[in-house]
Design brief:
It contains 15 helices and 14 strands. The longest helix is centred in the last third of the chain and has 19 residues. The chain has about 375 residues and is an alpha/beta fold.
Length: about 375
């Protein structure tokens, strides 16, 4: 059995070699010729998978090691009896931890105490629900908007989007859709930016097309937004560098790029492929995850509580390093910028999740300890 896999899926060759012969290829180099005689295709979001790629191939199963699958033509796969699996929720915790890092860094930069501040979470699925839980642990007031979930559950906690416009923070966690009542393409448009509370802090870690870049730039120029953080961009990898210069923090679509999340996604599609072809799965996530670089932290409780949280987070994930790396694109020629952006994703350094680090505290029942635990750290009392 021949398997073509995106080289950015960690440990994919080691794992999938238990069911076939694996050839790893750059995501943008997966062409009809490459997959012509393949049985399995394992992709990430940079590869468009549909008739143009697969029509002349022998592919019988497609797996994408991502939570979203807007790059996959699902209807084509169904019509042609090609198996499919994605990795819903695999990197949700990573993306939620990214938002926590953003909140704490923006809080420090703008002297904002997060306790009691309101945050509107637009899209309350795998990522948004985790963001809500962690933001609540920080003492924030959380408001949710998710029309599909509201219709499905009837739960009054899912509010109309207009009821989130008075929040101190707004964060987007929706899929990118272009049609229907829940269309999200340019959901954040000129109208919404004019309705947001003055001094709102705006985050987008969902998909670049959810935000109208021109409208966002106009809103920044008016001074209505206190801060803006973008991990995703329209027209990736050829991003709007003018917009990058305007935002407080900009990163190259890596919110969900923890090693934990990547390996979890790989294992999800591995198990799905094994089931589809009738093989026994030989590996699990623990088969590949190494020991954490920072297995233990001892904190100094004598500084401000929010500074302690930020200090702990930065020991595991310093988001400013990702921001610094992306801003080097400003020194590149226009024709080089797309390749540079893609290279940042391809060569992204190892990042582990908070759950791999135990924090030593004096009192496990203190407010600080509960916040550390609430955002994902393990606790150990002195």
């Amino acid at each position: 059995m021949k398997i073509i896999a995106d080289e950015n899926i960690p440990f994919v060759a080691e794992c999938f070699s238990s069911i076939g012969e694996v050839e790893v290829v750059g995501g943008r180099e997966i062409t009809p010729g490459v997959v012509a005689d393949a049985d399995i295709l394992l992709a990430r979001s940079v590869t468009r998978v549909g008739a143009d790629l697969l029509a002349e191939s022998s592919v019988r199963f497609v797996g994408t090691a991502t939570i979203g699958f807007d790059h996959i033509d699902i209807e084509y796969l169904l019509r042609n009896n090609i198996g499919f699996a994605s990795a819903p929720g695999s990197n949700a915790n990573s993306a939620a931890e990214y938002v926590i890092a953003v909140l704490l860094n923006v809080g420090q930069k703008h002297n904002l105490d997060l306790q009691g501040k309101s945050i509107g979470v637009i899209g309350a699925g795998n990522v948004g629900s985790r963001v809500a839980k962690k933001a609540t642990a920080l003492g924030m007031r959380v408001y949710l908007n998710d029309p599909p979930l509201q219709r499905e559950t009837g739960d009054a906690k899912y509010l109309p989007i207009e009821e989130l416009f008075d929040c101190d923070f707004i964060t987007f966690h929706t899929p990118l859709t272009f049609e229907g009542v829940d269309k999200t393409f340019h959901l954040a448009d000129e109208k919404i930016f004019k309705l947001l509370k003055g001094g709102c802090v705006f985050f987008n870690t969902s998909r670049g097309g959810v935000v109208d870049s021109s409208a966002l730039k106009a809103a920044i120029k008016t001074g209505r937004l206190k801060a803006v953080v973008l991990d995703v961009w329209e027209n990736e990898p050829n991003i709007d560098t003018e917009l990058l210069e305007m935002v407080d923090i900009g990163t190259p679509h890596i919110a969900g790029y923890s090693l934990d999340g990547k390996v979890a996604g790989m294992i999800m599609i591995y198990k799905a492929a094994c089931k589809y072809f009738g093989f026994s799965a030989k590996f699990d996530i623990d088969s590949f995850l190494p020991e954490a670089d920072v297995p233990e932290l001892k904190i100094n409780p004598n500084i401000g509580k929010q500074d302690v949280l930020l200090g702990a987070v930065k020991k595991i994930y310093d988001i400013k390093k990702d921001d610094f790396r992306l801003r080097q694109i400003l020194n590149k020629q226009a024709e080089e910028s797309g390749e540079f952006f893609s290279g940042l994703r391809k060569n992204y350094p190892v990042r582990r999740e908070f759950q791999n680090t135990r924090v030593i505290v004096k009192n496990k029942n203190s407010i600080l300890a509960k916040k550390l635990k609430g955002i994902g750290f393990l606790l150990s009392q002195e």
